[in-house]
Amino acid sequence: MRALVISGGGSKGAFAGGVAxxxxxxxxxDYDIFVGTSTGSLLISHLALGKIEKIKNxxxxxxxxxxxxxxxxxxxxxxxxxxITMNHWNILKNFLKGKKTFGESENLRxxxxxxxxxxxxxxxxxxxxxxxxxxxxxxxxxxxxxxxNDCSYEEFLDWIWISSNYTPFMSLVRKNGxxxxxxxxxxLVPIEEAIKRGATxxxxxxxxxxxxxxxxxxxxxxxxxxxxxxxxxLDRIETQNIRVGKLVASQQxxxxxxxxxxxxxxxxxxxxxxxxxxxxxxxxYLYAKNKNTEIMPIQPEIQE
Length: 304
Description:
Blueprint: E1 2-6, H1 13-26, E2 33-37, H2 39-49, H3 52-59, H4 64-67, E3 73-78, E4 81-86, H5 88-96, H6 106-115, H7 118-126, E5 130-137, E6 142-147, H8 153-163, E7 173-175, E8 178-182, H9 191-196, E9 201-206, H10 222-252, E10 255-260, H11 274-295
Parallel strand pairs: 1-2, 1-9, 2-5, 9-10
Antiparallel strand pairs: 3-4, 5-6, 5-8, 7-8
Helix pairs in contact: 1-2, 1-3, 1-11, 6-8
């Protein structure tokens, strides 16, 4: 059995979409299992359906309003680069409403409902492909994996949304008596889960460079401090997930093919820029193409 695993990474998910497009359309990889975390969970349903152009169009058209109904930050351009500052008014409004997070992402839930139809959900459920999203149960202090085979239509859409909620900047969701948040808080790269579900070969897209190439600039406001702290913790989780995944793979005799981002795409994956995400999708496609060309054996010439 072959699995495709896509890590979390916010707007960088566009790069993963490009990698997946090459692996499915050009490399002709046939996947039995799709496992996604955060932005990966947004991709995998359409990838499993083979509707790559549809999800590509979605990723190349979203912006901040597509995600947030109450955005907790403002994106400004300074000296040619994008920086974020706190939107104090929006944050205050959220707290006055009794919310527990800086911002709310209910628009993303609506977008998910519009992009995955009931017919598409039924087609996936009736097929032989397992589609799994990762969520973090904060109440029970554990990571949970939600398979499409165990969910109703509305439940599955909720789990995709929950998996993508990068708290405390996006919505904290209470479901089944528990509080849930972004799956990346517990399992950013769920390789181990794919192998547990029977995968013998796993293609993994990690939306981070293999080696850290930069030092973070000093934080200029509380928002940047929190994002830096979250980034630091997620980097540690990612490293641990990959290490554990490789260990489990060696024990089970499974093969892992990892696709890292070759360069730093962005230092803030909460910024959704349509032009950049379109470019990242193409970069992901070309990167996967080049990598697969490099590892393909050269066929010897046949002497007549």
